[in-house]
From TrEMBL:
Pfam families: AAA_31. Residues 11-194 form the AAA domain. PANTHER family: P-LOOP CONTAINING NUCLEOSIDE TRIPHOSPHATE HYDROLASE, PARA FAMILY PROTEIN CT_582. It comes from the Bacteria. InterPro entries: AAA_dom, DNA_Partitioning_ATPase, P-loop_NTPase. Gene3D superfamilies: P-loop containing nucleotide triphosphate hydrolases (3.40.50.300). This is AAA family ATPase.
Amino acid sequence: ETDLERPSETRIITVSNQKGGVGKTTSTVNLAAALADHGFNVLVIDIDPQGNASTALGVPHSADTDSIYDVLIDDLSIAEVVAQCPDVDRLSVVPATIHLAGAEIELVSLVAREQRLQRALEEYQRHRETEGQERLDYVFIDCPPSLGLLTVNAFVAAKEVLIPIQCEYYALEGLSQLLNNINMIQKHLNPPLRVSTILLTMYDARTNLASQVVQEVKQHFPNEVLEAKIPRSVRIAEAPSYQQSVISYDRSSTGALAYLEAAAEIVQRGR
Ligand code: ADP
Ligand code: MG
C-alpha cells in the first residue's frame, strides 16, 4: 500500500537525548509501528531499564523474562530473547527488564564492553539470513536518559542517531554534551555514526514559543530537522496504557498521522 522503497541495507537508528520526558520512547515506538505499517521489517531494542518501550508495545518484560540484559551480560543471542509485537505485524521487540538497571555497572568489567550490542545485533542479522528470514529494514534503539555504557553500546551499534527535541524553553540546553559524546564515539569507536534526524515533539502550533523553538533548532541543524512535527496529543499519551502504538489506537488522530508522515520522511531522506 506504499511506494516507499526498502533501504539497501538495514538502517540502525539510536534514539537518544539525555533529557528525560522529551519523547524518546514515544517516538521509538510510534516510528517503529509506522514503518511496520508502511510495510517494512522493524526491530525495536529497548535498552532503558524502565522498559517503557516494551510496555507500550505489549511484550512481556517481567523480571523473569529473558531480555536485552541477558544479551549484554550473559551472551544470550537476540534470537533467544526477541518477541513479536502482538499488535503490529512485521514489528518485533527485544525487551528490557529491571535487571538492566545493574547492567551499567556490570558492563564495566566485561570484555568489549562498548561493543556488546553491536556484536549481538550483527550476529542476529546473520542468524536471520541463515534461517531464511527477511532482512530487517529498520532497527530502533530506545536509550535511557543518560550517557552511560548502555547508551554508548547503542551509539556503537548504530549508524544514525535520532534526537527527539521537545518544543519548550531550553529545548537545546544540554544538547552540546550529547553532541560531544556522539563525536567522541565517532572518533574512537564508530566512524560512520552521525546525527541523521531531529524530530520535534510535543509541538503546539498555537503558541509563538513553539515556532521560535522550531526556528532555533533549524538554525543549529539545517539539514536534520524533519518537516513533520509531532503535536502534543492526548491520543499519543493514552495509547501506551492500552499497550498499543498510536497508529493502532487511533489511526486517524493527528498524532498517528504525524508519526506516519515522519516515518515516510525518514524513509525518503535515507535514499
Ligand atoms: P522519554 O522516553 O524521552 O523519557 P517519553 O516518550 O516517555 O519520553 O514521553 C514522556 C511523557 O510524555 C510520556 O508520558 C508520554 O506519554 C508523553 N508524551 C510524549 N509525546 C507526547 C505527545 N506528542 N503528546 C502528548 N504526550 C506525549
Ligand atoms: Mg523513555
